[in-house]
Amino acid sequence: MKRLALVLALVSMTTPAWCAQKQLSVSQLMDLVKSLKSSSKSDHDFATELKQVVLTEQLSAANLNLLAQSMPGAESTEQAYVLEARSAALAPPASEIPTTAALDPAASQALLAKAQDYVSKTYSALPALTASKQVARFQDGVEAVHALTGVNNNMSQDSDPSFQQTKLYVRLVANVTNPAQFAGGVEKLAVDKTKYGPNNIVASVGAPLALPTILQEATASGSLKFARWETIAGKASAVFTFAVDKKKTKYNVLYCCFPDTDTLGVMSTGAGIGNAQSGAGASANGNMQTVSEFKPFKSQVGYHGEIVIDPDTGIIVRTITQADFKKSDFVHNESIRTDYGPLQIDGKALVLPTQVFTAAEIVPNGDSFASHYAVRQTFTMTDYKDYKAGQ
User: Fold this and answer.
1) What is the Cα–Cα distance from 299 to 325, expressed in whole angstroms?
2) Considering only CA atoms, which of 24, 78, 81, 77 is closest in space to residue 53?
């Protein structure tokens, strides 16, 4: 009995910090921040508390701004942005949902027809544009992601993620700005030459679904239906939900890159290696594992999501897509929220993509088929600014 108690105590000591996450509503988060501020907590202590929070509701830009005013420094401010990105695809708090009467079937069909007219005649006819594209990438467990290369020594406090709790939290790992080109409202993806995989980062390198495709496939699915109202940019907008089967979509997910298990070589210790009698030299603990090749994960998947429409104009102000993966896939989930806003370009009022939130859960070492594997959370926030006409 005493031995069992000791084992349980040791397990509790080495349980990763992400197992002790707090699920909070936006209101509860605000109360937590207010309490931390009144206690004069340091920037580090603020950030440590926020790292443990998982929101159950969407953190709006307005509430994020309120939070930012209470953050004592850069470390806690970073975690406030993590909360925004992490909750981007969730529904807002009930208190923030307009009490406008629900659309009846006839009104819903009329609004969807207006949206289809807008996308086909206005959005798809947008001129060639350039913009500045800023991408902030957040990820957890960067140091704990191993590419299965080199010598894998006996587990120690330096190599066991249980002893690297602060390193397992989500935090900013990259922030880059590059030019972007658009034609007909669709971004032309530039070639990304980053060597993902060997650099311990797995990233989406495929083209996301364009707005016209999302609306076309959602409409063809026959599943579009009014769900609720939501306040976008201070105005009540209609939220429609949908689901698209993978046999009826062009949605191809592409992530780079995962270790190819076929090229994994294992060299065990024993005779000939680290054996004094063999003359092989000094001993080596553990296995020597090498990967000679990394491969991307590609899959055509179904998806579900939301389309948010301005009821007066039919303009689509937000889309959310959430991919439907198999449990054995190296990518477990992916959600993409795209916000569209009005901008003045050469004296013309155009509605363009302004911000994109992408959240994904991946198996960085490509071993989702195994009985035990590690998963990583990755979030990106993309801001489009300084739109200009022409290529």
Assistant:
1) 9
2) 24
Which residues have C-beta within 8 Å of that of residue 215, sequence separation ≥ 6?
115, 116, 119, 307, 316
- pLDDT score at 263: 52
CA distance 172 to 364: 18
> Is residue 221 predicted with pLDDT exceeding 60?
yes
Q: Which of 97-101, 139-143, 232-236 has the lowest mean pLDDT?
A: 139-143
Contact 353, 318 (CB under 8 A): no
- Beta-bridge partner residues of 343: 350
Q: Are strands 225-232 and 252-259 parallel, antiparallel or unpaired?
A: unpaired
pLDDT one-digit tens code per residue, 305-351: 999 999 999 999 999 999 999 988 999 999 999 999 999 998 899 99
Which residue is associated with the tokens 């993966």? Answer: 325
- Residue 166, CA atoms < 13 Å, CB-side half-sphere: 6
- Residue 187 half-sphere exposure, CB side, CA atoms within 13 Å? 23
Distances (CA, A) of 336 to 1, 199, 211, 280, 318: 50, 24, 12, 53, 10
Q: How much is the pTM?
A: 0.82
Q: HSE of 203 in the Cβ direction (CA atoms, 13 Å)?
A: 20
Nearest residue to 265 (alpha-carbon basis) of 148, 363, 366: 148
**Which DSSP helix (H) or strand (E) runs through 308?**
strand 302-309
Residue 231 parent element (H or E): strand 225-232
Q: How many CB atoms lie within 10 A of CB 233?
A: 13
Assigned token pair, 322: 């959430």
Range 261-286 average pLDDT: 46
CA–CA gap between residue 254 and residue 219 (Å, rounded): 25
| Nearest to 132, CA basis, from 318, 379, 359, 382 | 382
Identify whether 19 is preceded by a cis peptide bond (ω within 30 of 0).
no
Per DSSP, the three-state class of 351 is strand
pLDDT tens, residue by residue, 149-181? 333 333 333 443 333 444 578 888 889 999 999
**Count of CB atoms within 10 A of residue 111's CB?**
19
Q: Higher model confidence: residue 200 or residue 120?
A: 120
Handedness of CA 43, 44, 49, 54 (dihedral sign): positive
Where residue 223 falls among pLDDT bands split at 50, 70, 90? very high
